[in-house]
Every structure is written in structure tokens, then in C-alpha cells.
Amino acid sequence: MKGPTMPINSKEIAARVGVSQATVSRVINAWRDGDLGATQFQVEAAGLIEAMKRAAELAGIELPEHLKAMSSRGR
Amino acid sequence: MKNWTLAIFMRALMSFTFSCYFNRFYRRAPSGCTHVSARNRQIQRIDWNWPKSRKKRGVGIACNTHPSGLKGGGDPSQAQIRLKPDGTFDLLIGAVDIGQGCKTILRQIAADQLGVPLENITVNNFDTDIGPMCTGTFASRVTFMDGNAVIRACADFNEKLRVWAAEVFEASPDDVEIADNKIFVRGAPDTASKTMGEVGAAVNWGGQFMVGTGAFTPGAGQDFDPETGKMTAIASLAFGACVAEVEVDTKTGVVDVLKLVQVFEVGKAINPLLCKGQINGGTTMGISFALTENTLPYYPTTEFAAEGLTDYVLTTAADMPPELISDLVEVPHPNGPHGAKGFSEMTASAAPPAILSAIHDAIGVWITDYPATPEVILRALE
After folding, report:
1. What is the pLDDT of residue A28?
2. Does the beta-carbon distance from A3 to B356 stay under 8 Å?
């Protein structure tokens, strides 16, 4: 597979466990401050959740309240 | 079948075919044309609506992240700032501006650090043999690395300027303020003050050469543990999210990107207009990755390999989606210049997976190799 492996896998995983793609692969699974990377470095100044929430807002996608309440500042 | 039966059948077939083509060509004709309206009514009666139903729409999302500079470090940058006799400054950098606007951004940073107008700073990167060292314009690193080097060069210059001013004004260097294109002693701005033009003339014609230098390397990778592989591999991470809406023509395999929403978290947008320009440029590349660019369309064979830009199709501004919405989010990084992160490359990589995900949403088939050309789409549908 040379294409977008992560999006495909995450979408299939989401379908199998019965949750939306946005829930499993994008918001819950997003890197946040203090998370560890592949070489055990600590993530600083994470902003993926904030970017996703803004993108959803601009695209007219209504996120559930519990996803809206999430932040990159901690779990 | 008798000849007359065949003749009636062929006549009916020709009539039907003609009506189909007639309707197809003139279906958007002005409504005042009653002849066309009659044909449309005829088509509606037989429920022939394939021109619309063959097009499927879908929505996909994708996220990405990207480090500033080389993973593992080892990519330093240097900067030099010098005061000229007229009170303006030369900023010497080694970074090359390939259209991303780094000369503007580094100039903004220097002006802010020195407290002088933007137009009083000239950015020079004319000769990499004699200019300050820069590892290069790649890896989304120039704003982060060179920006930090410029901040350090300006801090070095300001320190030297304070020492010079302290001697002139017979004050403590700690009491010397630098702002609004002048220097002054705190508490006595009217009596102990000089404009930067006066400083430039006094310093240079007085036989001195006031230069600030700075260098920056992120230090990533220096804590590498060979036993475990543990290390601080990256200087900073920027993040992005993309939502794509596409329309797939199941008859021709053509994919139209109708809408792209892209949001990037950039730490601090030093120049928001340049950031959004970067997003638009990256989007052009991203749509190309997703839908057209292919050097070896029948890999591993080399048949029909692209031999030039007539075969290697690149999208242009004309291929931009009708709705292209981009925005920036800021989570300042503690090590970035004013909190900025590098994010330029990731503007090209957010859209492709979102587009392929949207194609899957539209037609229920995963395209697992870029690009999703019409041929690939039609073969997948088979």
C-alpha cells in the first residue's frame, strides 16, 4: 500500500468498533501535551484537537459535546 | 424478423437516441424555448436521469503533523545584523527564499527585536559562500531555525548597543531602552536619547563596527540513547486537519474536488497572509498528488512512463476547488521564534488522504495507491 495508510486503517478500525471515524482516529487518538512519541520524546504545544475542531466548524460538521470539550492541554 | 418490423424498430431506436442527445445538449437551454421544454418532459416521463445519478458525492477527513527541521537535529542556522551609517540595518542570512516568504518573515522578526521600522532593515542572502551558514531551505525549518538565529543576533546587537550607549550617556547598560527607532536612558528620554540614525553615524564614523551575530540549532537528537533509541527527535510539531468533499463521475472516473477545508496549527503566524498563501500553494500540490501525478502509471513496468510535463500532469490554479477554506490555529511552542512552528510542507500532505477518503465515501471503494486517476477509479469500480 503506497497510499494514505493511516486514514484507511483508522476508518476501517472505526467501522469495526462501531464508532465514527472522527471519534476514534481524530479526536480521541490525537497527540496531546505530555504524550510520548515513537522515540519517547514528550509532545509539547500540541494543537491537533484545536485544528480539528476549527476544521469541523468551518466545514459545518457538528461534533458531539464530549469531543468539543476536549483539549490538547491534557487528557 | 420481417423487414418492415426491423424498419419500425430501427426508426424507434433512432428517435429515442436522437431525443437523448437532443436533451443532453439543450437541457440547459433558456426556458423560453418551448421545443426544448417539450423534449425535457418526454425524458422525464421515461425517468431517464443517468446524467445526474452517475455522479456520487462523498466527504473525507484527514489529519497530519509535521516537525520543524530534521528529525534528530543537526541542521543549524546563523544570522548577522549590522548597523549602517545612516541608522538602517543589514540582516545577513543564509536561507534561500524560494517563494515561501522567509525574507519577509525574518525581516519582521528583526524589526520587532530591534524596535525599528520594517523598511529600515534590508535582508541579504545574495551569496551563500560568504553569508552566514544555513543548512538549507527544506524540512519546514527556516522560520523556526533562522528565526531563532535572527532573534539571537538581534539580542547580541542590542547588548552591544546598550554598552555603547551606557558609555555615551554615563548610565548603566541595564537602564538603556531600545524602542521606536531610538535609544534612551530610562527615566530621562528627553535628555539622554539618540535616534538610530545618530547612533549609526556616531558608531561607524567613530571607527567602530557594531555587529550582532546569532546561531541556533535545535539540539534535537543530542540526548540519543543507543541502548533504547530514546531521544528528543524533533524540535517542534505543527498539526493540520482537512475536510474534503468530492464528486466522482462513475461513468468517466473523473473526480472533482468541490470543497476543501484546511486548518493548520502553526504555533504563531508571524505573517498570516504568507501562511495562507502557503496553504493555497500546498493545496495545488496536494490535489496533484491525489488525482494526477504519476511517473510510472503501470509500475513495476515502465510502459507509458511520464517523459515530461505533458505526461506528468500537474494541477494549476484553474483546478482549485470552488470552495477553498483555510484557517490558522495558534498554540505557541516554547522554543519557536515568538512561538512559531514550521508547517509549510504539511500543507501539501493534508488534502490527498482526505480526498481519497472522500472518494471511498462516495463510491464505497478504497483507492490505496496515489493517484486516483479516472482509469484507476473505473478499474476499482469494476
Report:
1. 78
2. yes
